[in-house]
Amino acid sequence: MIDNIVHGFMTILNPFTLLLMVSGILLGIFMGSIPGMTATMTVAVLLSFTFTMDPTNGMMLLLGIYGGAVYSGSIPAVLIRTPGTPSAAATIFDGYPLSQKGEAGRAIRISTVASFVGGIISVLGLMFFSPVIADAALQFRSPEFFALAFFGLTIIASVSGDSLTKGMMSGLLGMLVATIGIDPITGFQRFTFGVPELLTGIQFIAVMIGLFGIAEGLKSYSEGIDRDGKKVDQEIEGVVPSLADLKSIAPVSVLSGIGGVIIGAIPGAGGDIAAFITYNEATRWIKDATPSFGEGNIRGIAAAESGNNASTGGALIPTLTLGIPGDSVSAILIGALAVHDIQPGPALYQDQTGLLYEIFMGFLLIYVFILIFGLLGAHYWVRLINVRESLLWPAIFVLCVIGAIALRGNVFDAWVMLGAGAIGYVLRLRGYPLAPMVLGLILAPIAEENLRRSLSLSGGSLDIFYQSPIALIILLLSAGTLILPVFRKVSPELSDIMN
Q1: What are the phi and psi torsion angles at 280 (to 5°)?
Q2: CA angle at residue 89 from 199 to 475, to 5 degrees?
Q3: Which of 98, 244, 302, 360 meets the CB 3.0–4.6 Å disulfide criterion with 103?
Q4: Could you tell me which residues are beta bridge partners of residue 182?
Q5: Spatial contact of 173 and 440, defined as CB atoms under 8 Å apart
Q6: How far apart are CA 306 and CA 91, in angstroms?
Q7: CA 390, CA 339: separation in Å to the nearest integer?
Q8: DSSP states of 41-90 as a string?
């Protein structure tokens, strides 16, 4: 193995390979920071450029875009409360409050370091444990996927803010919107109202851009653009986070990275589920959170970003070991390899060992470059907040429209985004949290489809859920997640009664 690692590392140090890698990272960072311009979209557009390259160079370009885009989605999440990519939505909870306190630079640096830690852990997991993790991930069937989605929905209790009732209503609204389109089991139309564009459902990325981007802009306009005293001075001194911050985020970054790899290895799970679950686990197990999660806690940023970026290497585990794509980007990567008559799967570890370790070492180096570019670029990204809001928000609105239309080349998605922005603005005025709505929109289709498929397989019996050890364990964890907040609230009251 040592020989393969050395050979792989020496191969990717070729100047042209490094140039492609760096170009991919910078392009990914740029595209990922634009709301709606996802890693999948960017990789798909540039896939054809790799057809004439050798497999190593082509993979380095695409993996650079992949890693850079997943990382940079946190930048607008911190600065303007609009995630650049779906998996960066959880970063808003603590990233944007830090920005409001004048610590956007600190938030981006924490995000960068946590992304690096999660990415490195994912590559190490890919390199040393991929066959084992892939075998475990293949055990997930409909009952296990339902349990995982249900576990994700229980996070609504953690992101509802001061009012659990409003959080639940927001989550239910998102779940209701997710039912629009073709029924995944029967094929019947649901709530389409004769509109052809609704047959494929509501694009959750368009809704997310509207809820966070457009709604935030409308809120700024309603409060008065460029009003005196509204702008927050940002502290942008230094490049590396303080030693105290690094010590604070180290444990949660490592644990969230491990969790992100495992979740990312489950085909179809993705970085958004990984980020929300790792963030939720951090809020549940860290007792001494000061400030509280949701108010600018750096460990919240670290948990979300480490889990998010760790899912990239996790998604490559079933891709390379079994030929089963872990997410949409890895599906495109399978196509990139297929052009060169290379079929991912067990034979890849025997017939293409050299290429395999070049991918491992290249992806490792990509996250090193992301760390460097992220820390050095934080000064420049933070300065965007200092641009006059009368100039900044129109530009953001234009980017939001472009991002929404670019999803499917459909103007209808732009109208969906604008409608979601108006709804998000009203919800914010009434004190309803928006994060639960996004969670419901993302996870409800997964939960519904796999619940109904499981019941179809079992003839309507719920036995199928507790007969699966994995599903049973996840459902028990879900129950604990729901009961624990109630127990914490009731236990002090019981103590007072007993005393």
Answers
A1: -65, -40
A2: 80
A3: 98
A4: 189
A5: yes
A6: 10
A7: 48
A8: HHHHHHGGGGTTS-HHHHHHHHHHHHHHHHHHTHHHHHHHS--SSGGGGG
> Distance (Å, rounded) from C-alpha 41 to C-alpha 415?
20
Would you call 56 exposed, middle or buried from its count of C-beta atoms within 10 A (0-12, 13-18, 19+)? buried
- Dist. CA 264–CA 326, nearest whole Å: 7
Q: CA 398 to CA 296: how far, in whole Å?
A: 28
Distance CA 51, CA 58 (A): 7
Which of 419, 371, 370, 405 minimizes the C-alpha distance to 177?
A: 419
Q: What is the pLDDT of residue 225?
A: 66
> 480-483, long-range: CB within 8 Å, 24+ apart, which pairs?
481/151, 481/154, 481/155, 481/157, 481/158, 481/280, 481/284, 482/154, 482/157
Q: What is the pLDDT of residue 230?
A: 52
Query: Quick count: other Cβ atoms within 10 Å of Cβ 274?
Result: 34
Nearest of 25, 428, 383, 39 to residue 213 by alpha carbon: 428
Task: Show the 3-state SS of 254-297.
Answer: HHHHHHHHHHHCCCCCHHHHHHHHHHHHHHHHCCCCCCCCCCCC
Measured distance CA(406)–CA(183) in Å, rounded: 25
CB atoms within 10 A of CB 227: 10
- Interhelix angle 215-223/389-406, rounded to 10 degrees, is 160
Beta strands in 138-260 (DSSP E): 181-182, 189-190
CA torsion angle 185 434 329 133 (round to 10): -80
Strand partners, 181: 190
Block means of pLDDT (10 residues each) for the chain, 499 residues, are 82 90 90 74 75 86 90 87 82 88 87 93 86 70 84 71 79 89 86 87 81 81 63 63 89 92 79 84 78 86 92 85 74 78 74 84 93 86 69 79 77 90 89 81 84 88 86 84 63 50
CA distances from 356 to 4, 67, 257, 319, 353 (A): 9, 17, 22, 12, 5
Residues 6+ apart with CB under 8 A from 214: 397, 400, 417, 418, 420, 421, 422, 424, 425
Angle at 434 between CA 108 and CA 117, to 5 degrees: 30
Please report where in the chains the tokens 């630079």 appear, as a residue. Answer: 105
Distance separating alpha carbons of residues 91 and 76, to the nearest angstrom: 10
Cα separation, 347 vs 474, whole angstroms? 33
* Residue entry with tokens 């998604």: 315
Predicted confidence at residue 489, as pLDDT, reads: 54
Task: Locate 292 and state its tokens.
Answer: 């509280």
